[in-house]
Structures are given as C-alpha cells and as structure tokens.
C-alpha cells in the first residue's frame, strides 16, 4: 500500500532522514520505533506532506505522492494523528469529529461514522457536547484518533499515541489501535514505547539517527538481543 524509497529529508544542514526505505502492506500494523530525535516524527510528517523530501519517493497504491500537497494526500486517504494531539480545544467533541470529515459531503455516512467512533470510544459519546480542551489527556488522544478516522483513511499514521498516558490507558489505546486495524485500516505507528508497539505490530522498523538499522516481524524484534538491550530495558 505504502512504499518509501530512499527518502532523504533535511532541516537546513541537519540530515534528518538518510535513505529511508520502508513498506507498509495493506491490512498491516507496521511500527517505527526509535529513540528521541531519531527521525520518527519527520518520517510521518514527510508521508503526510507536512515536511518536504529532499530526495526519494513516497508511493501510495502505485501513485507517486512525493510532490503532492498535504490536503491532496488527505484526499487520497492518508490521515495523520499528530504527536501532542492537536485537537481544537474551544470546540465540542462532536464539532472536532465533524471537522475530521470536512472533505466529505455524504451526510448520512458521516453520521454513521460518528456513531462508529462513539462505539470505539464510548467516553467520547458521553462527552460529545463538552469542549475538547476540558478532556483528559487520554480522552484527547482518543478524540484525535476519532477525528482522523472521520476521513475514512486507507492508512492511518499515528505519532506516539501513548505519550504522556498512564499505563492502563496506554493498554486501552493499543487495544483500540488493534481494533481499528482489524476493521480494515492499515496503520503506521510511531512509538517510543517499543514494548507495546512491538506487541501489536505485524512488522517493525528501527530508526537510529535518521537511518533504518533493523527490521523484522514484531515478534522477531521483541526477541532480538539488540532490541532488548537498547529499547526494552533488557540486559
Ligand atoms: P521525538 O520522539 O522527539 O519526536 P523523533 O524520532 O520523532 O523524536 P524527529 O522529531 O523526527 O525525531 O527529529 C529528527 C531530527 O531532526 C532531530 O535531530 C531533530 O532535532 C531534527 N529536527 C526535527 N524537527 C526539526 C526542525 N523543525 N528544525 C530543525 N531540526 C529539526
């Protein structure tokens, strides 16, 4: 579904991504793990068009989208949930969800999808009239994910959904990610929480200072000595 070929990204003189190659097949959860500053967010932002590639290609279902604008990529059903959530705090939960469907005109289907989001995240249904800024961190994360789903993405790009959440909530969010995937949405998940990410991912890539250094199935990487030492706190 998504192929990234020899992708390079610079911020001025900083070479943030170095010949990154990565594939996400239809129906998969693929995770990109790595330390702070390794280039995870840059990878997602370049896929969704918020950062420009210096060179390389991003291919979505056979179409080269490397030079498309961010909104054109949304039209092509690529949807990113940014790090730090970025919901609209003054607007209600429902209004935030409706905004996620801004490119769509199918009112009845939009209503159905809002109900689907409330099924996935019952707490959002309970709080639909509440202003989003008053939600807890976990609820805001759920709202950001729900909003992204409202564009009916083919591929959902998740940037550190576990950030700042209590362990119990982290588990809940990861269960929901599995759930979203099982209903047909392909997922690229960026995480510092390697343990949780590897536990739900079909395949994984490890990025260090802008380069992919390892890849394999979620299970293979969780067993790898290198990963144990560097990312899972093993000896
Ligand atoms: P984090 O977990 O902190 O989000 P990350 O793996 O997502 O880390 P990136 O945010 O992609 O890493 O950063 C990769 C590199 O690019 C880092 O060296 C970072 O300092 C640099 N960088 C990121 N954004 C910018 C920017 N806007 N301007 C300059 N350098 C940047």
Automatic annotation (TrEMBL):
InterPro entries (alphabetical): AAA+_ATPase (IPR003593), ABC_branched_ATPase_LivF/BraG (IPR030660), ABC_transporter-like_ATP-bd (IPR003439), ABC_transporter-like_CS (IPR017871), BCAA_Transport_ATP-bd_LivF (IPR052156), P-loop_NTPase (IPR027417)
Family assignment from sequence similarity: Belongs to the ABC transporter superfamily.
> Where is each ABC transporter domain found?
2-234
Q: Which GO terms describe its molecular function?
A: ATP binding
Instruction: List the keywords (alphabetical).
Output: Amino-acid transport, ATP-binding, Nucleotide-binding, Transport
KW Mitochondrion (keyword) present:
no
Protein name, UniProt field: Branched-chain amino acid transport system ATP-binding protein
SMART domains, alphabetized? AAA
Check the record and name the Pfam families matching this protein.
ABC_tran
């Amino acid at each position: 579904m998504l192929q990234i070929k020899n992708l390079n990204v610079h911020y001025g003189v900083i070479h943030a991504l170095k010949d990154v190659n990565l594939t996400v097949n239809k129906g998969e959860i693929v995770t990109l793990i790595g330390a702070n500053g390794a280039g995870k967010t840059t990878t997602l932002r370049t896929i969704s068009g918020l950062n420009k590639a210096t060179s390389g290609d991003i291919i979505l279902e056979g179409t080269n989208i490397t030079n498309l604008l961010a909104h054109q990529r949304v039209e092509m059903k690529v949807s990113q949930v940014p790090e730090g959530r970025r919901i609209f705090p003054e607007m209600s939960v429902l209004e935030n969800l409706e905004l996620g469907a801004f490119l769509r005109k199918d009112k009845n289907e939009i209503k159905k999808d809002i109900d689907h989001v409330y099924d996935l995240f019952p707490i959002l249904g309970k709080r639909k009239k509440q202003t989003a800024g008053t939600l807890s961190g976990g609820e805001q994360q759920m709202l950001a994910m729900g909003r992204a789903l409202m564009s009916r993405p083919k591929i959902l790009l998740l940037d550190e959904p576990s950030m700042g959440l209590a362990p119990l909530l982290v588990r809940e969010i990861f269960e929901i990610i599995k759930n979203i995937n099982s209903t047909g949405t392909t997922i690229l998940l960026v995480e510092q929480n390697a343990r949780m990410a590897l536990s739900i991912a079909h395949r994984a890539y490890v990025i260090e200072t802008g380069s992919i250094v390892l890849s394999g199935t979620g299970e293979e990487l969780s067993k790898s000595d290198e990963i144990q030492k560097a990312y899972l706190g093993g000896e």
